[in-house]
């Protein structure tokens, strides 16, 4: 394992609490944001998943496009929708300011909850954030392989007596280049620093202006 990947994996272990619920029913991420240059890291691999329209989609289908990839799930009570909303706001400003560059970027949401996140569920969900956001799901085995290849940790958790379940997962919004190689982690807010706003949409816009060429 190369040094770049090791430096990424170690903090991700601490991020597994994302989208979990803390005591008293309050959402508690319990993790900090991890941002940084990912050039040279071994992240990503070819896959075939199913989009929100029920069509098969391959990683190779996005060749020639930068890929802004967020792993999460539609039933996430707090972290995923907030992250996606702020990333979408930053991306929308980027579209307005740099339309030609924004056209080179494909935003993608990959579910870590394939049992509930059917194409129909994803279709409604992704439409709420941005018209160009693609939602991808698959079989549990397909999602497990993609998560492993993209260095994403997730775990289904069911509280005693609860009718449903939550999915703890690492919070890793990635930007990949036009060849599918990792570039950097997209800014998201760190709940451990209430006086700072690392996930401000303006910072997402600045991030895209820095990396998308």
Automatic annotation (TrEMBL):
It comes from the Bacteria. Signal peptide: none annotated. Cu cation binds at residues 76, 80, 169. GO terms for molecular function: metal ion binding. Disulfide bonds join 76-80. Keywords: Copper, Disulfide bond, Metal-binding. Residues 38-209 form the Thioredoxin domain. This is Electron transporter. It holds the Pfam family SCO1-SenC. PROSITE patterns: PROKAR_LIPOPROTEIN, THIOREDOXIN_2.
């Amino acid at each position: 394992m190369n040094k770049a990947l090791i430096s990424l994996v170690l903090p991700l272990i601490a991020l597994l609490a994302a989208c979990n619920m803390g005591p008293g029913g309050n959402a508690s991420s319990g993790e900090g944001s991890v941002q940084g240059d990912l050039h040279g890291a071994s992240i990503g691999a070819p896959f075939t998943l199913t989009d929100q329209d029920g069509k098969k989609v391959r990683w190779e289908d996005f060749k020639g496009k930068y890929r802004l990839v967020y792993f999460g799930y539609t039933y996430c009570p707090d972290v995923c929708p907030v992250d996606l909303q702020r990333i979408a706001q930053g991306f929308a400003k980027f579209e307005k300011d740099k339309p030609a560059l924004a056209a080179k970027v494909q935003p993608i949401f990959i579910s870590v909850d394939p049992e509930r996140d059917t194409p129909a569920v994803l279709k409604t969900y992704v439409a709420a954030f941005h018209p160009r956001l693609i939602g991808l799901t698959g079989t549990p085995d397909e999602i497990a392989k993609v998560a492993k290849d993209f260095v994403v940790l997730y775990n289904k958790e069911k509280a005693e007596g609860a009718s449903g379940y939550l999915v703890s997962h690492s919070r890793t919004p990635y930007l990949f280049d036009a060849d599918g190689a990792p570039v950097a982690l997209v800014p998201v807010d760190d709940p451990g620093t209430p006086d700072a706003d690392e996930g401000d949409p303006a910072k997402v816009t600045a991030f895209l202006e820095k990396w998308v060429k």
